Structure prediction request, 816 residues.
Amino acid sequence: MSEEEFRDGGVLAEFKDVTALVKACEKVRDAGYKSWDAYSPFPVHGIDPAMGIKMTKIPAVILTAGLTGATTAILLQWWTNAVDYKFPISGKPFWSIPANIPVGFELTVLFSAITAFIVTLAVNKLPSFYNPLFNHDSFKRVTDDAFFISISSADKKYDFDKCKDFLEELGAIDVEQIKDDSHVNAELPRNLKIAGVVAVCLTFIPLGLIARARTAYSSEPRIHIIPDMDAQPKFKTQTANSMFPDGRSMRLYPEGTVAVGEPGTDDHFERGVDEDGAWVDTLPQQVSLNEATVKRGEERFGIYCAPCHGLAGYGDGLVHRRAEKIGSPSWVAPSSLHQDYIRTQPVGQLYHTIKHGIRNMPAYGHAIPPEDRWAIVTYIKALQLSQGAELKDVPASARVKLK
Amino acid sequence: MASKAKKPDFKHANLDPGLAQKIITFGGAAAVVGIGGAAGLSAGHWDAFFHAYMIAYAYFLAIGLGGLFFVILNHLVRAGWSVVIRRLAEGAASTLPVMGVLLLPIVISVLMGNHDLFEWNDPHLVETDHLIHKKHAYLNANFFAIRFVIYFGFWTLAARYFLSNSLKQDETGDHKITTKMERFAAPGMFAFALTLTFAAFDYIMSLQPHWFSTIFGVYYFAAANVSFLAVTIIICRWLQSKDARMLPGLTVEHYHDIGKLLFGFNFFWSYIAFSQFMLIWYANIPEETEWYLERQEGGMAMVSIALLLGHFAIPFLGLISRRAKRNLKLLTFWSVWLLAAHFIDMFYLISPAQGGHGGEHAAGAVHFGPANILAFVGVAGAFAAAMAFALRGKKLMPIKDPRIVESLGFHNV
Prediction:
């Protein structure tokens, strides 16, 4: 590159040491120059006032960003947890301040840090790919042992000869004209530009995919990034299985298998039906109707039935009330045990319902042994009797308590 | 510029023996009148006296421990800027032996079986209360006394070590003394962390022996730093207003840095206090929440809110700007503010334990009375007298410390 292609970029003056630099800075500041800078191999205490640099406004910007972060965090949590998607977790409130503080703290720090980073770069005009001072060999010593002041030709008061004299007066040991070739050299390299454009284009791909997924429908199963235990190496019921000659996944009981505790020999006791298959109307001989049985039934009823049916059997248990409160769409209300069609059911049918469940109610046969099922039946009957009772039904000896 | 700072004239940098004598006399008198008065006022209600006394005691113990931490820390990291105020920190740490003497009556009463303050010392409760029974291996009178000897033994040793070596250096200017102290600082820091943590468990947390929090030591540590730094700012301002030559070269730059630490440690306190609260609040386990519950009922709820606003929200906003830390009047104001908040903090920690057993306890009752004020004045007097006694006639800065010049020339960019 020939000398003619350089333009006048300003003046670069070298000073002997840091003291001379600071003194010169004060003079340049007082002379009213605006577009100038000082360079030193190390940070210099007191150079800011010497150069007339005012206190930075960055802290105020960062404070604003921090407050924005805190507000964003609180609003985000309020919107997602208390408005848009209420999700009850062990009865905790949807919205409460202490739970939101940690995220608020994190976003405050995050917003502040990112803002500090970006604003500091911006204020320092970074990243910068070109500076005419790097055209000067003498300037390379600025990271080692040299101290410089430069006045840019962009300064309103700039005049090369005057500046040169002025800086020499201030004790500069060497003054040069800055060789500015920004008109030919400050352009970004072509490859870098292309790479930048390509990178920006690439970032649109994931955004586009997301936008498409938000609006389009697909019959494919969703993308399963973390399968956990969703897909297990096992055979499900009603599926074919090549491992066995008959091809069934569900195996039949070996011949002569007897269920534990229920040998299947006593229809009355185990199934609640008589020899014709009709519901029995009496208790089996294994169960005697006395206070101990009813008390046992009350206790079991409280454990297994009351959560849904309620302690008095009106179908208003805590599970039901909770489901209603949160408006569960799939909830089927448990039956009241005091409806006529249940009041008139024979004991065998009640027994059968407990053992096998009905409609939405699951079977309890696995959890409640036959004696206890019958005990619950006696309690349900007592409960039904109590709800329709009149004074004459109460034994004379117990009437005193009612008063 | 650091390299160019000149040593100022240290001729008048002594704590005038006359002034020191005055502080010792007044402080001693205040101690006798205050503590005696508080005891007299609550005669027959030892429960009330003991708790009022412990609040005041924990308040000033924190300042002494904050001083010791400051000395150890600055030796450990070989800090330059802080040298000018290190002697004051050494003075604050030198109150720790006296604080040990002030705790002695309580340790003796515990050994004699008194359980007005520490209900874990009640043999009947040890028998009947399952949790206290399980903790008896740690919370018993003899081990309590042994730990008292260990804590105050170490603190006294460390405080005397740093002050006497530093004073020796004032005479000889031997740089090796600094190296020696730096070498002691590392194991000293370990011992300090352990003793402070367990002392906080013993003297404050065990007042309600059912409750426990592993972060409690850090909480008290944060409070110790806040109170020590606030006191240091006030002492420096007071000394300089009496005679600026007592602390020559202590400039707004140093105040600015103490202010930064004050701000930082105050936020640290808030962070720790909230961490402790949130874990317990979220887990919602009755044996942990009861401690907070009784601080959120009745009058104590107002004390809790006062603590939240007074120890965190308001001073946080007040001290955040550079201006607040460089404007010495503002900085002094916030120091006084935070010392008041420190009292609310100690009151909040300790006073709900009062009447905790014996059936007269009303949850959320605020037990504040003249005994609190008298006990505070008493322990404050003892603290001031002890600090003045340690520094009487001595230089108020380590004038021959190898880093004193760096410290004097310190400048915030």
